[in-house]
Amino acid sequence: MSAEPEKKAKINHDHFRDHFRQCKQLNVSDIDIEHFNKQSLESYQPKLQHISQNHCAKKCLSFGLNPAKTWKVTTLAGVAGFYLIQNSFHNFSKWFWILRSLVDFTKFPIKSNLTAEAALGSHRFPWQHYDPNFSKTKSSNEKKQPIERLRWTTLGYQYNWETKKYYAGHYIDFPDDLASLCRFFVQSVGLDEDKQYNPETAIVNFYPEGSTLGIHCDNLEWDSTSPLVSISLAHSAIFLLGDADRTREPIRLLLNSGDVVIMTDSCRQRFHAVPKIFTTDKMDKIDFERSKEDFLRNLNETLCTCGEETQTSCKAVTKSLIFDRVDHFSTEDVIKAVEYIRTRRINLNVRQLKKLTDDVPLNCDEIDPRLNSVDGSSP
Fold first, then answer.
1. Which domains does the chain carry?
2. What is the pTM of this model?
């Protein structure tokens, strides 16, 4: 009689939790960064997927991306709906989205884990009040700056981590450039032939070194089967992808800056987590300036290959999406970003909340209880 409960407990053992704890203890010296994914994915028969030739260099460049022929798109046997896209982002585009996340996606009225303290200007606009020299002039036991305590912001339809609900009553316009970029990735792997993918909500995570993202499923959207697009920026992280329950060992992946993960259909029901952040990338002001020069050179070379009839329209499309917009960021923003991401990782998680033909659920017009006392005045 006593053996039966023991057998059941063994069957239901949480192998995902075991791997999470093991990975959390790893140091960068413990792993082979270059061959980590090859070794982890060997038993899943990784397959490289072809990208449509319609994705010409000009179109990719308009999104700040490398030519599609250089992308590495991996799918896995037995893991339907999972795509890993590598080598798609030009280095300059990585900088663009790091700056976009820090400068634009942290501004009031965008909601964050600091929202409850938003009556203070430094909490409503944490990037504006960030002093990268603060730690050098203040004692170590003083309170961290708000931007250093920022863990997440939400774009589009607002999500409340406590109630596990989305609130249409506090909708914030979803960034057009981020929506276009994610549509491009989804269409690139052949997931949106009828052009119904419509990004309308995102969580931007800001991970300091040593932080984690717990085991969870992203299935709380009103439509939890549409593609979820996750973009990694700055330092690397171990990503664990399990099954619909936690009794099976998860897949271990090392996600580096610029890597994109797409999860759709049944893959959306799989547990996943980030147990470890590694400080691996060296991104400084020189890297920013060199990548900007290289991007501009690629831009000019691409324009030169266009016929005279298409050159004007090509230039307008390409310049408007990435390059002209970077002038919105100041030299001070770049200097501050270099210091901020020295030991941090940023992750953009973009979702379609509902199908285009669906209405917003009636009960989602409620007011997010976190926001009842928020002061919306200027800093």
1. 15-113+150-367 (2.60.120.590)
2. 0.88
